[in-house]
Design goal:
The complex is a heterodimer of chains A (129) and B (110).
Chain A (H helix, E strand, L loop, with lengths): L2 E5 L3 E2 L5 E8 L9 E7 L6 E7 L4 E3 L7 E6 L4 E6 L8 E13 L5 E9 L3 E5 L2
Parallel strand pairs in A: 2-11
Antiparallel strand pairs in A: 1-3, 3-8, 4-5, 4-9, 5-6, 7-8, 9-10, 9-11
Chain B lengths: L8 E4 L5 E6 L10 E6 L6 E4 L13 E6 L2 E6 L8 E9 L4 E4 L3 E5 L1
The chains are: A mainly beta (129), B mainly beta (110).
């Protein structure tokens, strides 16, 4: 069973770059085909999609964050990474990585659809001097 | 302001049926399926409903999803105390070329 786990500094100074890693266990990225998504949640608030990367490297980003976000994959380390530049206090949040899986269902598994079925536990990042 | 407005709160007593709405547009719910996530206090979200009305293995059939036009709903029947959580809808947005979430609904079991 694939699992994902976020890691990285819990404190980042304003104007610096936030860097997080999502480590995948239970499967090799070299032989996998799925999207890894980054999602964040400020304290007491809702979920915000940051962006995603396919194991082959293609990306999609939230237009509101696109100018500051870079998501990459390192198949040799079985890791995905998130970089968010020029951070401010508004970027303080719990950051999650989530595996986007194509789920097959119905008679003969004829139908399929995508959803975030595996989530990391999340990592809290505070932006403060 | 969330792309997919949801009521901020909902409540019910044990055994009741409650429904949570999620409003969208033609670029998201109107043209793509909807997923629902349950977030228990202090934990990561968990997939509850995918493809608008499908339950992952292990999710009780008390939970059901539906869609009408550009809106979606999550219904919970036979409400239990352990259902007290935040619920989020999500859909792919063709215009934004990304996933969008609802603002979340906090369900209280009275």
């Amino acid at each position: 069973q694939v699992q994902v786990q976020e890691s990285g500094p819990g404190l980042v100074k304003p104007a610096q770059t936030l860097s997080l890693t999502c480590t995948v266990s239970g499967g090799s990225l070299s032989s996998s085909n799925f999207y890894c998504n980054w999602i964040r949640q400020p304290a007491g608030k809702g979920l915000e999609w940051i962006g995603r990367i396919y194991t082959s490297g293609s990306t999609n980003y939230n237009p509101s964050l696109k100018s500051r976000v870079t998501i990459s994959v390192d198949t040799s380390k079985n890791q995905f990474s998130l970089k968010l530049s020029s951070v401010t206090a508004a970027d303080t949040a719990v950051y999650y990585c989530a595996k986007e899986t194509t789920i097959y269902y119905g008679s003969g598994s004829y139908y399929n659809d995508d959803a975030f079925d595996i989530w990391g536990q999340g990592t809290m990042v505070t932006v403060s001097s | 302001q969330s792309v997919l407005p949801q009521p901020p709160s909902a409540s019910g007593t044990p055994g009741q049926r409650v429904s949570i709405s999620c409003s969208g547009s033609s670029s998201n719910i109107g043209s793509n399926t909807v997923n629902w996530y349950q977030q228990l206090p202090g934990t990561a979200p968990k997939l509850l409903i995918f493809s608008t009305n499908q339950r992952p293995s292990g999710v009780p059939d008390r939970f059901s999803g539906s869609r009408s036009g550009t809106s979606a709903s999550l219904a919970i029947s036979g409400l239990q105390s352990e259902d007290e959580a935040d619920y989020y809808c999500a859909a792919w947005d063709d215009g934004l070329k990304g996933w969008v979430f609802g603002g979340g609904t906090k369900l209280t079991v009275l």
